[in-house]
Write a structure and sequence with these properties.
The complex is a heterodimer. Chain A contains 13 helices and one strand. By secondary structure, chain A is mainly alpha-helical. Chain A has a single domain, classed as 2-methylcitrate dehydratase PrpD, CATH 1.10.4100. The longest helix of chain A has 24 residues. Chain A is globular. Chain B has two domains: 131 residues, 2-Layer Sandwich (60s Ribosomal Protein L30, Chain: A), CATH 3.30.1330; 71 residues, ACT domain (Alpha-Beta Plaits), CATH 3.30.70.260. The longest helix of chain B has 18 residues. By secondary structure, chain B is an alpha+beta fold. The chains are: A mainly alpha, B alpha+beta.
């Protein structure tokens, strides 16, 4: 992350700007083409959100489906406690995660289990702040920058490091995307990512019955709300002491210390609750 | 790791490591065999063994063997489609040793040959082929990949790399291993450019080369 920020400072680029340049060089393709690929990913996210908010489906286990629709109805009725942007974000995040659980088509961001968090934050800000598609694409590139750092210095596998490496990193990515789209500096995007991940440090991977359903779908919704909180903390200028690189290193330490039962084996944490066991009997 | 591996892949859920990664492993194993297998014995390890049903890992591996992409909605029906196509599949849990928790061994039977592939999906849809038959390898197949088997003797590698050089194909990474000195050897090369069919044919016609497999990035 330090390297990305240094480059951004030297070239006077946003976080998204640095990542787009990196991707251009890597692929040897012009900027517009690289942006176009990302816009394609955004379209799939939008279709998944649409399907999740309006479709009638359940996961093969029958345990999840329709939650995003409930939240959307609640929001439209003006009854949400969490405010307009957050209410939209959590409905979309849950809806997309449900589409994933039902073996629908999604964009892993960075993983499938955490695929609702970015679309939730992106489309909520689009609707409430009137953002253009180009700004959302910038948000995705900023998010990708955070994800690249996490993948290089840690891992994106719940089986290796717990849910902190999936929903935790997705939340950090969404926080950075929100800062980017709000016009924040690269340092603020990195700070938001760091704050987001600190808040989810140690999050375990404990899927009920080994399914990407409970608590994964709920965690996509809470992750989206959490990302907006972290973005606000960074944008407001609250001093965030621990650099993102060090937060990632801590996540690796913590993840390695997790027993196997809390790393995607479906044997500990929420998965081990009596009700959880009954649900998947 | 690049931006489109982080914001991606576009895939059928529910898990990038247990579903999308598994589809890619199946596709690669099929490419290494060189045909759709008629039988597949699938040994699941660690988290793959414990969580494969709920993640659709079984359907995903078979979808890959049938040649489907990670975003193909037929992944959901892959087990039924395999039955209809005459692909017989068995799943069992196994301890594959000191490997990533998301690992699987595919013992494939084709019309022409059998092949054993050990692979892992460390997360985010990434895959690594760790073993082909008895040969340890390290293939992520993000670049065009060439696999060749040949008798372990001087000059074979030079003959292969000379053909690649002549065709303007740059080798990004290379690994060779062998059963024992002078016995059968296997080389894996990742290239920066796609490998044209003519070059693959030229490699196959080299006297020392037993078999060449060219795999496009999946």
């Amino acid at each position: 992350m330090a390297g990305l920020l240094e480059l951004a400072g030297k070239e006077n680029l946003s976080l998204a700007g640095v990542v787009i340049r990196y991707q251009e060089e890597l692929e040897g393709k012009p900027r517009e083409e690289v942006r176009g690929i990302m816009a394609g990913r955004l379209r799939v996210m939008r279709e998944a959100a649409q399907e999740g908010l309006t479709g009638d489906f359940r996961s093969p286990s029958g345990l999840v489906g329709g939650g995003g629709k409930f939240l959307e109805k609640w929001r439209r009725a003006g009854r949400s406690l969490s405010g307009t942007i957050t209410a939209r974000a959590i409905a979309i995040a849950m809806a997309v995660a449900e589409v994933n659980a039902a073996m629908g088509r999604v964009v892993a961001a960075p993983t499938a289990g955490s695929c609702g968090i970015l679309p939730g934050v992106l489309f909520a800000l689009e609707a409430e702040k009137g953002l253009a598609e180009d700004q959302l694409v910038d948000g995705l590139f900023a998010a990708a920058g955070i994800g690249i750092v996490a993948a290089r210095q840690a891992s994106l596998s719940g089986a290796a490091l717990g849910c902190q490496a999936e929903c935790g990193v997705a939340t950090a990515m969404a926080a950075a995307a929100a800062v980017e789209m709000a016009g924040g500096k690269p340092e603020q995007a990195a700070a938001a990512a760091g704050v987001a991940l600190q808040g989810l440090m140690g999050l375990v991977c404990d899927p009920v019955g080994g399914l990407v359903e409970i608590p994964c779908v709920m965690r996509n919704a809470t992750g989206a709300a959490h990302a907006l909180t972290a973005a606000d903390i960074a944008l407001a200028g609250v001093r965030c002491y621990i650099p993102f690189d060090e937060v990632i290193a801590a996540m690796v330490e913590v993840g390695r210390a997790l027993p196997a039962s809390l790393r995607e084996t479906g044997t500990g944490g929420i998965a081990a609750c009596p009700t959880a066991r009954r649900l998947v009997e | 790791m690049d931006a489109f591996q982080i914001i991606g892949p576009v895939m059928i859920g529910p898990s990038s490591s247990h579903t999308a990664g598994a589809v890619r492993i199946g596709r690669l194993a099929r490419a290494i065999l060189g045909e759709i297998p008629c039988r597949a014995e699938i040994l699941l390890h660690g988290s793959y063994a414990r969580a494969y049903r709920g993640h659709g890992t079984d359907r995903a591996l078979v979808a890959g063997l049938l040649g489907f992409n990670v975003d193909d909605e037929r992944v959901r029906e892959a087990l039924e489609l395999a039955l209809r196509q005459g692909l017989e599949v068995t799943f069992s849990e196994a301890n594959l040793g000191d490997v990533h928790p998301n690992s699987v061994q595919l013992n494939l039977k084709g019309r022409e040959r059998d092949v054993h592939v050990l692979a892992s999906s460390p997360g985010g849809g990434q895959v690594v082929i760790k073993k082909i038959d008895d040969f340890p390898v390290e293939m992520s197949c993000e670049l065009p990949t060439l696999i060749a088997t040949y008798p372990d003797r001087p000059g074979v590698i030079a003959a292969v790399t000379a053909l690649l050089a002549g065709a303007g194909v740059n080798i990004a990474g290379m690994r060779v291993s062998r059963r024992a000195a002078g016995r059968q050897a296997l080389m894996v090369m990742e290239t920066d450019q796609p490998v044209p069919a003519g070059l693959v044919a030229a490699l196959r016609s080299l006297p020392a080369i037993e078999r060449v497999i060219a795999i496009d990035p999946v």
